[in-house]
């Protein structure tokens, strides 16, 4: 959902003169005991540090991309992680970042919305196939099942019980950095690996930082490569269509009725029934590679002000669409599985028993160029208040244009506690290939109904509190507690999506 927000610990002036203070303030104490002050070299990292982080995220909305741009977007995610930074010597630091993310998604569950079957006894559990027969008693009613319908049902507004409802994403990243003796140059590198049930990612990168002008000026160059692969999962009806070679009387479709948009039963052996556009084809290239280059320039403008500017170039190539996401076309008939009585209000949350069969999955170009550029300006007013501002402009060759602006106001209320309220505004237009539910045309080459790629505005309101103990008085085993950070964000999008984020972080330092 756009970029992650940092958990920030504010200490007086150290945030404004971050590297300069780290390098100059503390060595003064050590230098007083050296015969030759110039011979003293401060370690980049004094001792091993451990960050333990955890977050909880929840969202609601009605524009699920898995079901073609309508339907429930309810999602919850719990993401713990641990970051260990180890000084190898005075100049070198090794870091290891391990994280997992466990989510439950109502929309993703509807990759297979037909896991629920309506029977004479009501609603039963998951079915292994379509597994039901349309129709009811002679009078169209029965006592146990008002409406008289039995068989497979589904709805974009109801979460299925399918396996795709839950998943766990895991990642591990290892980084290394080396600082020169004069601390004016930093060379870094990293490798990473991440996986979930339908995606695998391998990445590596490196960077170079140079400080000038008595460390008041900083220039950084970074590059990264991600070599990813899909383990594709497709909407059930599309995948099943291929499995049975288009025979709608076999496999999943055995005993399953297909209805037209007027609620009439179709002849599955005839021509006037459902079939996906062009017979549906699978992913031809399961790779998704990304290459990024970043440059940033930071300058201390005065005693209390720091500015930085940055620019990135990102190129992606391979399969850039999501095979889980359905698309519907306005110029072809609509067909359904489930209770035909629910068809007239399909796009309403009143519909709990019928699902529209996909015309195709999302298809987008196999390459993309992204260009984000931005600026940060931080000003230290006094020992109580610091202002941090941020602006970014983004554009790409898919037609997307976006603006991001944010402000954070760290307020130091005591020696140990800092409050940091924040606000973030985001706006974007839609990409060239987006259209809402059931409005694309089958003659188009590329199409998506993913509202993340639509036009919208978003507001994010945040509040955090940080506890810092530079003397690490609280001890646990061999580690002293250095800081605690708590954060809450409320996110609201003009499309109706709403989200809440809760985060907590602990930083420990080894004695």
Automatic annotation (TrEMBL):
Which Pfam family, an example, fits this chain? DUF3570
Q: Where is this region: Disordered?
A: 121-164
**InterPro entries per the record?**
DUF3570 (IPR021953)
Q: Where is the composition biased (Gly residues)?
A: 122-135
Biased composition, class Acidic residues, residue ranges: 136-145
Highest taxon of the lineage:
Bacteria
Supply the name of the protein.
DUF3570 domain-containing protein
